[in-house]
Design a protein that fits this description.
411 residues; alpha/beta; Rossmann fold; Helicase, Ruva Protein, domain 3; 5-stranded parallel β-sheet; 16 strands; globular
Length: 411
């Protein structure tokens, strides 16, 4: 019997072996709507056309290999669950794929029962991860009330402003400490805007080598420089008709800041090695943990770029300023990692929750998520106690266990 799935029960098989495609279609078609593609390019074209939440992807493909296809899938939609298929589970390849966002590996030949179970887990994971459409005021309020944004006064005020500007093309600058969820807010803004059907492209400016910034932002043609063996589309073109999120924008050199000013002014890019100018329709959301005004004053950040970014400046508060959101976030992350890891951690004790509330969270929401992921993976009991939490946080003093605390969302 088909399981209830609020998202389309579609699976895309990308494998160059026709026998594999046929076998998987026959094995799965009673429960899932199966799409197939013989190459990575064909698969990506299908994903751009239809909402397909789960992909079975072969590692060894002609032309574009599985790891590159995985990277492009995650750029297209990070919420798609990708399960890798391989007859040769080499450790470096497995590590690279998991680091690239693959959810799981399935060996060839596969066990049909295991395959179906893994697919059901993948759909559960997608339901947990994928943000709901935000096209109505009611849906906006639901998001504001949920774990994505939080119920604290500071987060409600932040989301109120984001709602007000969502249907505009105004540039938004998110200012806050590392780990506060700036990219998550940028995605929520994109999903609640008229551009939600377009791409959302995120780039961490701090992670780009200086020699590649030009190419990453604006693209390059094949042969444009040593090592440019194929054409590359820059993030501005990738985000055409959608939203481009530039994280840690203060890390760009002054030269690249000047180039960025030109793009924002002319709304056009020129790939390295090309004389052709290409129009881009992109909404820019930028983020930084630094004081851009100070950087301007010491001539480390261009003033003209500062004023182009400082249209809708929003401060994202640290988690220690929103402690009332912690129970809600705990509920969310327990559900997420129970699904991801096949666990059944039902909640935390009162004492454990108090430890989480009192901790100073220098890594903010990201640190809280990683802490709970680790606890769910390692725990062998239904309730996380204070001793486990303190050990996970590296705290020495332990609190005694306490009765379980009721968390929002029924955990």
């Amino acid at each position: 019997m088909r399981a209830y799935m609020p998202i389309p029960s579609r699976v895309l098989v990308i494998d160059d072996d026709e026998g594999v495609r046929v076998a998987l279609t026959v094995a799965l078609e009673d429960e899932f709507q199966v799409y197939t593609a013989a190459t990575g390019a064909e698969g990506l074209a299908l994903l751009r056309k239809d909402l397909i939440p789960v992909v079975l992807l072969d590692i060894r493909l002609p032309g574009m290999d599985g790891l590159e296809v995985l990277r492009q899938i995650k750029t297209l939609d990070p919420h798609i669950a990708v399960l890798m298929l391989t007859a040769w589970p080499e450790v470096p390849v497995v590590v690279a794929a998991m680091q690239g966002g693959a959810m799981d590996f399935l060996p060839k030949p596969w066990d049909v029962a295991v395959l179906r179970t893994r697919l059901c887990q993948a759909f559960a994971y997608v339901r947990q991860q994928r943000p709901a459409p935000l096209g109505t005021p009611t849906q906006h309020r639901a998001l504001a009330d949920g774990v994505v944004i939080g119920r604290s006064a500071a987060m409600r005020q932040l989301w109120h402003v984001l709602q007000r500007v969502a249907d505009t093309t105004a540039t938004v600058l998110l200012i806050g400490e590392s780990g506060t969820g700036k990219e998550h807010l940028a995605r929520a803004l994109h999903q609640s805007s008229p551009r939600r059907t377009g791409p959302f492209v995120a780039l961490d400016c701090a992670a780009i080598p200086d020699s590649l910034v030009d190419s990453v932002l604006f693209g390059h043609e094949r042969g444009a420089f040593t090592g440019a063996e194929r054409q590359h589309i820059g993030v501005f073109e990738q985000a055409h008709t959608g939203t481009l999120f530039l994280d840690e924008i203060s890390n760009l050199s002054l030269t690249m800041q000047a180039a960025l000013v030109r793009v924002l002014q002319e709304r056009a890019v020129q790939r390295v090695g090309s004389e052709e100018t290409r129009h881009v329709d992109v909404r820019l959301v930028a983020a930084t943990h630094q004081d851009l005004r100070h950087l301007v004053s010491v001539r480390l950040f261009r003033q003209d770029l500062f004023y182009r970014l400082y249209v809708i400046p929003l401060t994202v508060p640290p988690l220690r300023a929103c402690r009332t959101d912690i129970p809600l976030l705990v509920t969310h992350f327990l559900a997420k990692y129970n699904t991801a890891y096949g666990r059944d951690v039902q909640g935390v004790t009162v004492a454990a929750l108090e430890v989480l509330r009192q901790y100073h969270w220098p890594g903010n929401v990201r640190e809280l998520e990683h802490c709970l992921a680790r606890l769910v993976a390692l725990s062998n009991q239904p309730l996380l106690d204070a001793a486990e939490v303190r050990e996970a946080l590296g705290l020495s003093e332990a609190h005694p266990d306490a009765p379980p605390v009721a968390l929002p969302g029924g955990q």
